[in-house]
Sequence to fold (117 residues):
Amino acid sequence: MTYKEFKRHVFTIYNETFDGADNGPIDYGIQRAKFEEKKLNRLILLADQTDFSTAKRKVAGWRRQLERVHEIRARLELRKSETPVAVAVYDRPERVIPINLTGGRHARPVATARAMR
Fold:
């Protein structure tokens, strides 16, 4: 493979677009991380098949990006696993504290300036 062919392959891989499903933001982030992971793995594999020094230097950056993608994906998957617990806690109406928002203008204030001293 010539260097020109290598650059052409890298260019086509870089320009692939992500078509994410219309899910929630966490699912979208996980799908996006998987897409980026596949893309970076393909770039690393392509660079390993060549003997160009510039390709070898690019691999180090792609591996750092791949590590970040792994961290982001792990963080999002953890957040996704925690979400049902948080919804269950905040979705209980018996735990809601009633607040009177219809109080008139002359209603007694919660705190006065003298009480704060």
